[in-house]
Amino acid sequence: MPVAAIAVVAAAIGAGPVIAAVQGEPTLPARTAQQLLADAAQATRSGMKPMSGTVIQTASLGLPGLPDISGMGGSSPAALLAGSHELKVWYGGADRLRLALPGRMSETDLIVNGDQVWLWQSETSEATRIRGVDPEAQNKHATALPSATTPQQAAQEVLSRAATDTVVSVSNTERVADRPAYQLALAPKDGASLVREVRLALDGETFVPLRVQVYAKNAAEPAFEVGFTSVTFTPPAAENFTFTPPAGAKVTERAADEFSKQEQARQERERTLKDKAKVVGQGWTSVAVLPFSVKDLTANPSQNADGAAEDANAIAGALLRSAKQVSGPWGSGKVIQTKLLSALLTDDGRLLVGAVTPERLQEAAAS
């Protein structure tokens, strides 16, 4: 999507995948995998068309020994590690956007209408007006809340991996969000990858990505999926982008520059990590290697008043307790494996991460 999506925890929707594909008779013209890859790439580059819909993200990553994530705050990124989460989207253009994030007994809304930007949190009955917004650069001002993957963002990552080390197949019998869809299935050739298959559903009319599902090896259900459960590619009504704080609400103002500074700091951290990181291998089985130590896993609560730091520390502690001690010619360290990701934290201060087996991480550590 052309703007950063935001997400909070919604009510648990239930076990298993919540975005089911319905098989039916072929209704779409036959297209090759190469044609669909080109169509999908063009659709993601062209940007989002006016639309409205509901996105569901479901994660079952098999993270070992975690605390009860469901009890964590809805605005915590940790909450996205498990369960199902809902996001409602109305998109009328670069300067007209509404995102609604339902909770069990509350809702958080971001409303953008030109230079009028509001953040509404019903749980605390607080409305925040964001001043000094550049309507041409809304992306900068949606970063106050943790971001969630949309089908378009996930599809871009999938398409970037559709290289020579991938087996691609296609079908034209899917239905997603009650729309006929093509489905691309991308499978790594290298057996060291923990990913069995990635399925990418494209709208049969617009070729907009409607759903992405990631399957781990030997798993019948997706370890991760994100997709529309309903979508309409027509301009939303104007009233979706208007907001007036209700009577009795606490109204505050914040400068857009605050969010810009947060975004600049985030980008600087990313650049620092990228400069330090090295990559061993390529494609699905590439391994990132960067300087790291156990103390780097501990967040500073004073820098994050919303509880995200405490959540991160609890998760880091649980993961370290579940880690297995390993050693080899490369040295010694601790390894953690989930359904889709392995991480090796070496005693000499390196972190190796990849969607590969722990054995491949140890090979990378020795290289």
Automatic annotation (TrEMBL):
Residues 1-20 form the signal peptide. This is Outer membrane lipoprotein carrier protein LolA. Keywords: Lipoprotein, Signal. It comes from Streptosporangium algeriense. The keyword Lipoprotein applies. It comes from the Bacteria. The lineage of its organism: Bacteria, Bacillati, Actinomycetota, Actinomycetes, Streptosporangiales.
